Amino acid sequence: MHMADNFNKDSQPNKLATEVNQYIKQETGCRDAYFKQKEISNEIALSLIPNVHEILKTNNSLETYVKLAIVGNILDFGAYDITTDFEGLICKNLNKNLSINDIEEFKKALKHHSEVLYLVDNSGEIVFDRLLIEKIKEYDVDVVVAVKSSPIVNDACEKEAIDAGLDEFAEITTLGCDSGGIVQEMFSDDFRKLFDESKLIVSKGMANYEGLTEMNLGNKDVFALLCSKCNPISKNLGVDITSLVLKKL
Length: 249
Fold this sequence. Notes:
Blueprint: H1 2-6, H2 13-28, H3 35-47, H4 49-58, H5 62-71, H6 86-94, E1 100-101, H7 103-112, E2 115-119, H8 126-136, E3 142-147, H9 158-163, E4 171-174, H10 189-197, E5 200-204, H11 206-213, E6 221-227, H12 231-237, E7 244-248
Parallel strand pairs: 1-7, 2-3, 2-5, 3-4, 5-6
Antiparallel strand pairs: 6-7
């Protein structure tokens, strides 16, 4: 009923999806339906770290770390089921080139700014985000990681970020909401101030990309890192489905 009453050509997808998820939580009394999947995602990602370190022995460029973070976006039970061979899928995708590759602009931005606001996406992939954050810190920048304030599907909250070790390399903050992706009007006052003041932003995943494209980003340096997993996003970006993307917005 909510979708029928509120869906139209001007609907904001992230906001509508958030409202639907909030309704489901209210009606079912289940605060965190993806709790187990989030745990499994982190476990899968952590089990792959030894293989990842072998890859990094032969190529430890910033681009490789970016690709690892993007490939981590495949760990998504919204796109795949529990029986998926994630190890094989991730290894296969690591051999692909970035379909959109703004790595040189990313390097310039890291050298120009002193702080990065890093918008994480799903549990599991945040393990690979940690590796990229470690690499980013070599550019002598501070990193603030933004997670959801409370559970929504398989998005990372503070618990998952700490379980993945992100707090060892970055300050962790919350959006002040449980939105699906970025929904500016749902930000807490504190996060809105942080976002407005941030000059360099790294955004993971499709939902965050969707939200950012609906905002006025001014003169910020904003980089979207994602694996395109649906037709609308692929069409918007001009790439094939399953493409790996590092795009400056």
